[in-house]
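Q: My labmate handed me this sequence with no annotations at all. I'd like to see what the chain might look like in three dimensions before we decide whether it's worth expressing. Could you predict it?
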Amino acid sequence: MELSPEMLRDIRFTERFRGYDAAEVDAFLIEAAGALEELITERSEPMAALAAERARLAIEQVRQETLGEVAELQSRRDELAQAVADLQLMLADRRRGILEALALIDATSEPAPDPGADAAPSGDAEAEPADEVTAETADEAETATGADEAPETDSFLARLERAAAESGESGPG
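A: Here is what I predict for the chain of 173 residues:
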């Protein structure tokens, strides 16, 4: 049988001849019900406090795990940022090296031939003289070198870029 304060308050006994005083029994039952209610409340408070403490500990554990994961992610982000910075420095060094090599090639290479001077003056009857450049040949030379650039100052890098652009125009597409 489960005992509760309400059960003690609501119970009624049958009266018998020479039995207990009904008022005293009722008063005792009311007092017992109050005491039982206090015991239940006292027992509930620690249980509630224990449950609250367990919840707080679980929350703290999740918080600590999350902070650890955040620290790990920040460390990984810093490593990646350093790797990117290292790669950028390496790329800048390689660009510098390439530009130095191109400058060296330009310094040691011969100037580009004049596109208008196709034929060598050999006295050959079929060769055109250099003075007789057709308009079409002059346009091609301007397009190839640019209107502002003189063919004599054409750098290796400029010729390389022009060749790459021409191969891109005539490539598959």
